[in-house]
Design a protein that fits this description.
By secondary structure, the chain is of the alpha+beta class. It contains four helices and ten strands; from the N terminus they run H-E-E-H-H-E-E-E-E-E-E-E-H-E.
C-alpha cells in the first residue's frame, strides 16, 4: 500500500476507550521516555507510506520468535520480556515482541506522533503496508479511531491501536493478539464481513473494539481496521 492515500471516514461520535478499552495506559512508564499517547493538538491523518524501503536484516526464524513472545504474554497484564518492562498498552506489546530481534519500532517517530503512528512510519520505511490478501503470523495490524486520542469529541484521531497477527482461520478470520485494558488478549477480525459480529452459526468473527456511546453503536475490529504491516521475511509459523 506504499504511496496509497488512506482517507479516514467521518463516523458518528463514539465513547472514548483508550488503547482498545479503558484510558491510555503506559504513557509515563516506558523505559525510554517516549510517550506513545502524547495528545495530538488537532485532527490527525494517517501518514502516506511514501518512504523508500530499507528492509530489516534479521536472522531466520524471526517470525516464530516474535509470535512466541506475543503468545506467551496472552493473559498477562504486564508487558515484560526477558526482564525488560515495556508500556502496558498496545504499543508496548508489539515493541516487546520485536525487541527480541533488536528492532526498535519507535525509531521513525516524529514530533506529535502517537506510538501507533510512529510504528506505522517505521513499517513504511522498512517493510510493506497492505490491506488485502492473507496476512502472516507476526505481521502487525493497525486500527483507527478506537478512542478519542486528542479528547476533542470528534472522530479525527488517525491511528490509535495496534496488534499482532497470531493466526488465520479457515474462513479468513484473523486472530489478533493485542493489549487492552484487561491485559493481553486474542480478538477475532474478519474483513470479508467487517460489520458482522457473528456468522450464521453464532461464531464470533469480529470482536468489539470500541464500546457504544449515546446514539452510536459498538464498533468492531473489522470496521476500524486500517492496514496490515509486514517487516519480516515470509516464513511459516507453527499454529498454536
Amino acid at each position: 500500500m506504499q504511496g496509497m492515500r488512506l482517507v479516514l471516514p467521518i463516523l458518528s461520535s463514539l465513547v472514548a476507550l483508550g488503547c482498545a478499552t479503558g484510558r491510555p495506559m503506559g504513557s509515563t512508564r516506558l523505559d525510554d521516555g517516549y510517550r506513545p499517547f502524547a495528545m495530538a493538538p488537532s485532527a490527525v491523518a494517517v501518514p502516506e507510506a511514501t518512504a523508500q524501503v530499507t528492509p530489516l536484516e534479521v536472522p531466520p526464524g524471526s517470525r516464530t520468535k516474535v509470535v512466541d513472545v506475543a503468545r506467551a504474554l496472552v493473559g498477562s497484564k504486564r508487558v515484560e520480556v526477558n526482564g525488560k518492562r515495556f508500556g502496558d498498552d498496545c504499543t508496548g506489546l508489539v515493541r516487546g515482541a520485536y525487541s527480541q530481534l533488536g528492532v526498535d519500532l519507535m525509531s521513525a517517530g516524529q514530533p506529535q506522533d502517537n506510538g501507533v503512528t510512529a510504528i506505522w512510519r517505521f513499517t513504511a520505511q522498512h517493510g510493506r503496508l497492505y490491506d488485502g490478501g492473507r496476512p502472516v503470523a507476526g505481521d502487525l495490524v493497525f486500527f483507527r479511531e478506537t478512542y478519542d486520542l486528542n479528547r476533542d469529541g470528534a472522530v479525527n484521531d488517525g491511528l490509535t491501536h495496534i496488534g499482532l497477527v497470531d493466526d488465520v482461520e479457515g474462513d479468513g478470520t484473523v486472530i489478533v493478539i493485542h493489549r487492552v485494558a484487561r491485559g493481553v488478549v486474542r480478538y477475532r477480525m474478519n474483513l470479508t464481513n467487517p460489520s458482522q459480529a457473528k456468522d450464521a452459526t453464532g461464531k464470533v468473527i469480529n470482536d468489539g473494539l470500541r464500546l457504544p456511546g449515546a446514539g452510536s453503536p459498538q464498533r468492531l475490529t473489522g470496521e476500524l481496521f486500517v492496514s496490515f504491516g509486514t517487516l519480516l521475511p515470509n516464513e511459516r509459523v507453527a499454529a498454536r
